[in-house]
Write a structure and sequence with these properties.
The chain is α/β, with parallel strands linked by helices. It is built from ten helices and ten strands. The radius of gyration is 19 Å and the shape is globular.
């Protein structure tokens, strides 16, 4: 049973089909890239997979301990509880809060708060708070962010904000992490750092990663399999080596590397 199974997914806005009859599978532990020219429908597909948009037709199924669960129509918080997390093209940190608080907020999605112990500030409340902070600090340490723990998230350089955003998504303890153009706007040094972060999330944390990315060198270095969208339709899938030589992909990119935006 695949971790995620997508069957004949379509998203239509009026007379426009942004995504048309797309089927794909994502296996547990994979690192998958979704690429395509401008307006190919990649972010629209991400939005359906993560509960932001409801598909016009088709099915999205995710494997759980109780078998496959149909995601269609579920709210984003319900999808998150199944083990999905994501980032967006535009950074969405709590800019005025500290880096540490950003991570702690994400971690509370997996804790159960008791109204009485919270209101009365019982010892159990402080014990839970202490455990969350310890775990958040460990995560920041693992990704070389602990020195910025007390810094305001919005004050950090762009590349560090991206890293914090990805680590915040990881703090929800997802099984499946979607990254929407994580390297957008980064310089080569920041991109190299990001590549190491994404690789570590997959290999050391055992998280399945799916990313949309315009940086083809990053995609070819990281991805195990690649899906290619063009005008809302899936035109190719395969390993990086296969995709490089696929005539349909070359035609879609007009013979060169494209800047891919959903």
């Amino acid at each position: 049973m695949s971790l995620l199974e997508v069957n004949h997914l379509t998203q239509q806005f009026g007379g426009l089909k942004a995504v048309s009859d797309v089927s794909l599978t994502i296996e547990d532990g994979e690192l998958i890239a979704l690429i395509g020219p401008n307006g190919a429908g990649k972010t629209t597909l991400f939005n359906m997979l993560t509960g932001v948009n409801v598909p016009t037709s088709g099915e999205i199924k995710m494997a759980t301990d109780k078998g496959q669960v149909l995601i269609n129509g579920k709210r984003t918080d319900q999808v998150a509880k199944l083990g999905m997390s994501r980032t967006f093209q535009n950074i969405r940190l709590f800019a005025e809060l500290s880096v540490l608080d950003n991570i702690k907020i994400a971690m509370t999605s997996n804790t159960r708060e008791n109204f009485v112990e919270t209101m009365l500030r019982l010892p159990s409340f402080y014990k839970k708070e202490s455990a969350i902070e310890d775990e958040a600090r460990k995560l920041l340490t693992d990704f070389q962010l602990i020195r910025y723990a007390r810094s305001t998230a919005g004050s950090l350089p762009y590349g560090l904000q991206r890293r914090v955003e990805i680590v915040r998504a990881l703090a929800t303890k997802p099984r499946l992490l979607f990254l929407d153009e994580p390297a957008a706007g980064m310089n080569p040094e920041e991109t190299a750092d990001l590549t190491a972060v994404i690789s570590r999330i997959q290999k050391d944390y055992g998280v399945t990663v799916v990313l949309i990315e315009h940086d083809m060198s990053l995609v070819m270095n990281l991805a195990q399999r690649i899906y290619v969208l063009d005008h809302g339709s899936l035109i190719a899938s395969g390993t990086p080596a296969e995709i490089k030589q696929n005539p349909a992909v070359v035609a879609a990119y007009l013979g060169g590397e494209a800047v891919a935006e959903g």
